[in-house]
Amino acid sequence: MNFRQLEAFQAIMKTGSASLAAELLQLTQPAISRSLQELEKAIGFALFDRVRGRLVPTAEGQLFYRDVSESFIGLDSLRASAARIRDFGSGEIRLASLSALGQNLVPRALGLFYKQHPDIAITLEIMSSSAVRDRVATGQFDLGLAADEIDTTGVDHQTFSTPRAVCAVPAGHALAARDVIHVRDLHGQPFIALAPEDTTRRRLDALLADSGVQPKVVVETPHSATVCALAAEGIGIGLINPYGIAVPPDPRVRIKPFMPALHFKALLIFRPDMQKSRIVHALVKTLLQARLS
Predict the structure, then answer these.
(1) What GO molecular function annotations does the UniProt record carry, in alphabetical order (predicted)?
(2) Between the CA of residue 20 and those of 32, 86, 98, 105, 187, what are the distances in Å?
(3) Which residue, 59, 95, 213, 249, shows the most beta carbons closer than 10 Å to its own?
C-alpha cells in the first residue's frame, strides 16, 4: 500500500468514477484502475463492487474511506503549510523600528497585516536607528525603519516617509495660544532638543544659527515621544516627528506647526537577500498603507 494507491482510491470516492478520478489527478484511467487493483490486493478486501461498469463502494470500502480521509486532512494541512512557506518564506518576519514610528504607525500597520496574514509570526523591537541598521545588516532582522542619518552601506533601502516637523508646547505656555510657532519664537525659551546626531536636529541648529536665535536647551533626547512627555510636564518646548505623538494626544501638550518647514526622513532598510521575499513585500505594502491613513 502506497500514497499513489490511496490517492487514486480517494479520488474515485470523491468523483464516483475512475475516469473522473483520472481527470482530477491528471493521470490516465488505466493508471487509476491499476492503482485501485494493487491497493485492494495489498489490503486483502474489495473496495468497490463492479456493477454494470460502475464502481459501487462496498461496506468495507466506505469504512476504509473514512480512515483514509482523516489521514488526508493532515496531508492537506501539510500542503497548506508548504504553500505558505513558498509564498512567505519561513512564516515569520523580524521587524526593527526607530521609536518615532514604532509607537503608533508600526502597531497600526501590524494590526492591518495580521488581519490579512494571521499565520505569519512577527517579532517587533523598538531601538535606535543605528541599532536598527546594524541588526538588519547582520541578518538578525529582515526589515527595518530608521532615520536617514544611518550608514546605508551593506543594506538595501528606500525612502519611507518625510513628515513635516511640528512643535510640542506645554498647554500652559505663552506660545500655546499661537497658531504657528516661528523660529524666532524659540529665542531664550527652555527647549527640549533631539539628539545631536539627528538630521533634523542638525538642520534646526543651522537654521537657529542663521537666524541668530538661541533657545535654552534643557534636555536632549533621541525620541519624539519623550519630547512630548517632557513638554507635558512643562519642562520646555521641542520639535518632534508627528508620528511620535501619542494616540490619543496628551491634553497637557499643544501641537503646533513650525515655520520655516523642516522635515524628518525615515528609511525602509532590507537585508539584500530579503528583497525578493513575498512576506517582506506584503509587510512593506501594509506599512505604506498605514503611513497614509
Answers:
(1) DNA-binding transcription factor activity; sequence-specific DNA binding
(2) 10, 29, 57, 52, 84
(3) 95
Q: Model confidence at 76, in pLDDT bands (50, 70, 90)?
A: low
- How far, in Å, are 138, 159, 271, 273 from residue 153 at the CA level? 12, 15, 11, 14
> What b-and-e string marks burial along 67-84, b requiring 16 or more CB atoms within 10 Å of the CB?
ebeeeeeeeeeeeeeeeb
Which cell is 20 given? 473522473
Residues near 28 by beta carbon (within 8 Å), at least 6 away in sequence: 22
List Cα–Cα distances, 258 to 183, 221, 251, in angstroms: 7, 19, 19
Is residue 273 over pLDDT 80?
Answer: no
Contact 100, 168 (CB under 8 A): no
Is the whole-model pTM more than 0.70?
no
User: Residue 54 pLDDT > 80, yes or no?
Assistant: yes
| Alpha helical stretches, state H, 117-245 | 129-137, 199-211, 224-232
221 pLDDT more than 90: yes
What would be the CATH architecture of the domain defined by 3-88? Answer: Orthogonal Bundle (1.10)
Which pLDDT does position 50 carry in this prediction? 86
Alpha-carbon Rg of the chain, whole angstroms? 31
Q: What is the homologous superfamily of the domain 92-161+266-292 according to CATH? A: Periplasmic binding protein-like II (3.40.190.10)
Q: Which CATH number fits domain 166-259: 3.40.190.10, 2.60.40.1120, 3.30.565.10, 3.40.1350.10?
A: 3.40.190.10
